[in-house]
């Protein structure tokens, strides 16, 4: 399959970006559309996995926490396209951008089923973090960028 990673630019790309984020990370827990957006969107860098027909099937957000630390949030890949390297490609794009922006550490809170994925990418578990929607356990993970 053919896809590339880019930052959404058009209104339509942003619409697809947020819609996929909601579909994969909020709708299954009966959260209303709009709940996938937070107050930091304008300060973050957004990435999509998109094909030549403009189908968006992967999303992720790079957030800056300080002058040294970045954070991955809202990473998700459409179920039928999992295990094809899209999550890795999104993470690579985020890490490259974080390094360009002079951050030397990336942290994230991984949903329990995604911990193995992030371990594959070199992230280490630091501690158990929060429980989302009373059921999704998260784990704080981090990676030093070199
Ligand atoms: C977690 C997620 C983003 C991974 O995306 P993906 O496109 O399937 O991942 P990739 O295909 O790029 O996988 C990269 C590597 O991690 C491995 N991997 C992927 N998912 C894994 C998992 N759940 N557990 C263990 N390993 C995993 C792959 O086998 C691959 O290993 P390889 O390079 O040795 O072949 C995707 O499964 C997803 O969106 N899950 C639901 C939403 C979610 O939990 N998001 C994270 C929120 S914190």
Structural class: alpha+beta
Strand order of the largest sheet: 1-2-3-4-5-7-6
Ligand names? coenzyme A
Q: What is the number of independent domains? A: 1
Radius of gyration: 15 Å
Give the CATH level 1 class.
Alpha Beta
**What is the CATH fold-level name?**
Aminopeptidase
CATH-defined architecture: 3-Layer(aba) Sandwich
Give the count of helical stretches: 3
Name the helicity range: 10-25%
**Overall pLDDT, averaged?**
97
Unreliable stretches covering 5 or more consecutive residues? none
Total count of strands: 7
Shape: globular
* Main sheet attributes: strand count, strand direction, barrel closure: 7 strands, mixed
List SSEs in N-to-C order. EHEEEHEHEE
Task: Give a topology summary.
Blueprint: E1 4-6, H1 11-25, E2 45-50, E3 56-64, E4 69-77, H2 86-100, E5 105-111, H3 115-120, E6 124-132, E7 136-144
Parallel strand pairs: 4-5
Antiparallel strand pairs: 1-2, 2-3, 3-4, 5-7, 6-7
Coenzyme A binds at residues 24, 75-77, 82-88, 110-111, 113-114, 116-117, 120.
């Amino acid at each position: 399959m053919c896809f590339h990673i880019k930052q959404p630019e058009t209104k339509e790309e942003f619409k697809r970006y947020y819609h996929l984020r909601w579909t994969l990370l909020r709708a299954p827990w009966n959260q209303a559309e709009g709940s996938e957006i937070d107050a930091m969107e304008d300060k973050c860098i957004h990435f999509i996995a998109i094909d030549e027909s403009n189908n968006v099937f992967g999303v992720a957000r790079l957030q800056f926490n300080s002058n040294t630390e970045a954070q991955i949030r809202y990473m998700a890949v459409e179920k039928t396209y999992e295990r094809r390297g899209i999550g890795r490609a999104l993470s690579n794009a985020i890490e490259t951008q974080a390094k360009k922006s002079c951050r030397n550490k990336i942290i994230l809170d991984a949903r329990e089923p995604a911990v193995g994925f992030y371990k594959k990418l070199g992230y280490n578990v630091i501690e158990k973090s929060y429980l989302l929607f009373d059921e999704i356990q998260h784990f704080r993970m981090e990676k030093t960028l070199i």
